[in-house]
Amino acid sequence: MFPYSKYLRTNRLPHIWCTGCGCGIILKAMLRAVDRSGIDRNTLIFVSGIGCSSRTPGYIDFDTLHTTHGRALAFATGIKLAKPEMKVIVLTGDGDACAIGGNHFIHAARRNLDLTVILYNNRIYGMTGGQPSPTTPYGEKGTTAPYGSIEPSFDVCRLAAAAGAVFVARSTCYHATQLDKLILKAMNIKGFSLVEILSPCPTYYAHLNRLGTSLDLLMGYKRNSIPVEKARRLDPSELKDKIVTGVIYKTERPEYFEEYHKLQQGITENGRLR
Amino acid sequence: MPVTAKKYTIKINRELCKGCQFCMAFCPENVLAMKKAKAVVINPEKCTGCQLCELYCPDFAIEVEKKNE
Ligand SMILES: Cc1ncc(C[n+]2csc(CCOP(=O)(O)OP(=O)(O)O)c2C)c(N)n1
Ligand code: SF4
Ligand code: SF4
Ligand code: SF4
User: Fold this and answer.
1) What are A102-139's pLDDT values in tens digits?
2) Which of A11, A44, A132, A148 has the fewest CB atoms within 10 Å distance of its CB?
3) Per the CB < 8 Å rule, is A176 touching B55?
4) Could you tell me which residue ranges the Thiamine pyrophosphate enzyme TPP-binding domain spans (chain A) (predicted)?
5) What mean pLDDT is predicted for residues A147-156?
6) pLDDT value of residue B2
7) How far is CA B2 from CA A30, B19, B35, in A?
């Protein structure tokens, strides 16, 4: 038995998420990763935007900040500048990070801000009733796309890597134990790290697209996932509609806050720039 | 006749259980079932302590504990 209650505001339970919503699975994986990291909980801060997924900080007993829609990364940047010693984890949805917050997302990655982003991708706007998001696959339905979306979707991991993230990983709520490992790896990275997690929204996504129950969505993740090591050996045509899981991309680059503090020190020590 | 010792305690919090059926579906030993849209233990003696039910429960509603011998 894992002592989840050690990290929960238990008086806030039951949480608001629907029956079979994947948010709870991600929350639990995150707590296991935090526990394994051995990080002093007083040096951790969780920041979220708006959405069902962004409700997560309300249930965890850490320093937490529930901000405005799409702006979690902007608040996180401020925290990190004021308190560089803090480990800042951003919890966000596909709408929060890729639609309204899309600019913050690409520029946080470009600057290589030392933040860990956990992106709950349920491929829809859950909280507002099932409108399509930038990750809704082409042809799939939302309340405002009753004939199916005519927009292509973002590949969030490719987007982050292209923008400048130094660690990019993907998994699903079916792969619950892999989530702990990827989140832990992301937390140990200095720089912008992203873990995208496919998460079931039975209430809107599955319902509107007649995909069955939440369990059916989880089993779909199992069927359609391919580990990245295997995917690299396949032809791109064989990866259509597949979910590539694991560490998708990793690199090293100077980190923004370190550069910023170096610059700041340079100025204060000499009274001018070195 | 030796009685099969029950090695694990499965605790279900009915206040928190939302009836998603994940625990039942992932249990490899058919230990769990649903009754009135809540999880219930039907075959406790078959539990191997694998904790898959606990891993997938999104609601902190099921816990598996090893009993002290
Ligand atoms: C400025 C602003 N615009 C719009 C909204 C309405 N709104 C709330 S949540 C949401 C979308 C959430 O989608 P996502 O980030 O994918 O989270 P989910 O609910 O699916 O977890 C929107 C559009 C808002 N709260 N604030
Ligand atoms: S609407 Fe969807 S994402 Fe929101 S709590 Fe319900 S199942 Fe989860
Ligand atoms: S611990 Fe394993 S065997 Fe026991 S009830 Fe849970 S899933 Fe079934
Ligand atoms: S997984 Fe949890 S919430 Fe779902 S039926 Fe089982 S105990 Fe209830």
Assistant:
1) 999 999 999 999 999 999 999 999 999 999 999 999 99
2) A11
3) yes
4) 50-197
5) 98
6) 45
7) 43, 35, 31
CATH of A24-269, one of 3.40.50.970, 1.10.3720.10, 3.30.70.1350, 3.10.310.70: 3.40.50.970
Helices (H), chain B: 22-26, 52-56
pLDDT digits (tens, 9 = 90+) for A182-234: 999 999 999 999 999 999 999 999 999 999 999 999 999 999 999 999 999 99
CATH entry, B3-66, from 3.20.20.100, 3.10.310.10, 3.80.30.20, 3.30.70.20: 3.30.70.20
Ligand 2: centre distance to CA A49 (Å): 15
CA of B66 to the centre of ligand 3 (A): 11
Q: What is the DSSP string of A84-126?
A: TTSEEEEEEEHHIIIIITHHHHHHHHHHT-S-EEEEEE-SSBT
Domain ranges of chain B: 3-66
Chain B CB contacts of A215 below 8 Å: 20-22, 25
- Least Cα separation, residue A24 to chain B (angstroms): 4
ipTM of the complex: 0.94
